[in-house]
Design brief:
There is one protein chain. This protein is an alpha+beta fold and 348 residues long. Helices cover 55% and strands 9% of the residues. Helix 9 runs antiparallel to helix 10.
Length: 348
């Protein structure tokens, strides 16, 4: 298995990094948190022009994908720059729409998602991230717990529950969305009902694919967030002095940074290995490892920045809150660990 990026993939990552470096994403995030989406939509269009969302859309629907490795490459950079918006949800929605047997909804919705002309959100819990700004709002009902729909056999517990449904939800009522932990992502209650796109066992496999892509891109995003936090902290400890010396020269500080670096480097091959196999257990392992590494790095960054790290005005806070939010998005650490163990059982 090849876990090293080739020259084309590295160039793709470099081009995204260069574009996002000059985009002033902290300002975009703060605008987004206030419901001012103009800068965010403009940045979304530039990301789409780079081909990011087309990587999740099959060629039959005017896309370039599905190409999970390149998606992971892109989402590391999106996380590194803390780009706001329903990035993961758009990719997951594309995977779900592409997999349902009835091609009508995919033909109608996927070209716009791949081109960046539409944003999508996807939920099964009633509240959608960025549901107020999303153009495509998909809801999956009949889900059981934090995973996605299953079809139990007759006579087993849960066999009498409603069959899963995929709907295109109507626009939310006018009102202020609820803030989330991450200021770049706002929760919006979606009204019930909407256009029925598919129902029954036919959406079980596509929903599983959507979950896989959501967890993979979340893991990649978390890896980028962790790397950005580490880079910012290394710069900070090289500039801040105590007792006449940079605090980065202190052994205790070096050890904390080394631990963070090792955790992130250990997560990286898991993320790209999971993108190659797309096995549920591999993806779950990548997600829990990358998200825990990013969260641990966030705690280190906060400690080494001191009191300034707590302030909302300081840009570091935008990455700190994103690391915490990603940790439980699309499956908590416990849920992902259970998936890993379940996959390990199936291999033996």
């Amino acid at each position: 298995m090849r876990l090293l990026l080739d020259a084309e993939q590295r160039a793709f990552a470099g081009s995204l990094d260069a574009m996002l470096t000059v985009a002033d994403t902290p300002t975009v995030i703060r605008d987004w948190s206030r419901g001012e989406h103009a800068r965010g939509r403009a940045l979304w269009s530039r990301i789409a022009d780079a081909g990011v969302f087309a990587l999740a859309v099959p060629e039959a629907y005017q896309g370039l994908g599905p190409r999970p490795v390149e998606l992971a490459v892109a989402f590391v950079e999106l996380g590194r720059h803390a780009v706001p918006g329903p990035l993961v949800e758009t990719v997951a929605a594309a995977a779900l729409l592409a997999g349902i047997p009835e091609p009508g909804p995919a033909k109608r919705l996927l070209p716009a998602l791949g081109a960046g002309e539409a944003l999508a959100t996807l939920t099964h819990a009633g509240h959608a991230l960025d549901g107020d700004v999303a153009d495509v709002r998909l809801t999956v009902s009949g889900a059981d717990g934090p995973t996605w729909p299953t079809t139990p056999k007759a006579g087993t517990p849960g066999a009498d529950r409603p069959m899963p449904e995929l709907r295109l939800a109507p626009a939310p009522a006018t009102g202020t969305p609820r803030p989330s932990l991450d200021p770049a992502r706002r929760l919006c209650p979606l009204p019930p009902g909407g256009e029925l796109l598919a129902a029954g066992p036919q959406i079980v496999a596509p929903a599983a694919d959507a979950l896989a892509y959501a967890r993979l891109t979340t893991a990649a995003q978390a890896l980028g967030v962790g790397e950005a936090l580490l880079d910012r902290t290394v710069t900070h400890v090289g500039q801040r002095t105590q007792f006449g010396a940079p605090i980065g020269s202190f052994q205790a500080v070096k050890h904390r940074l080394a631990d963070a670096k090792i955790a992130l480097e250990f997560a990286r091959p898991l993320v790209f290995g999971a993108a190659l196999t797309m096995a549920p257990a591999d993806i779950a392992a990548a997600k829990v490892t990358a998200c825990e590494a990013a969260y641990a790095t966030a705690r280190t960054a906060l400690q080494l920045h001191g009191a300034i790290g707590y302030t909302a005005e300081y840009d570091l806070s935008l990455w700190l809150t994103k690391a915490r939010a990603l940790r439980t998005a699309w499956g908590s650490p416990d849920v992902c660990r259970a998936e890993v163990l379940s996959g390990a059982d199936r291999r033996w």
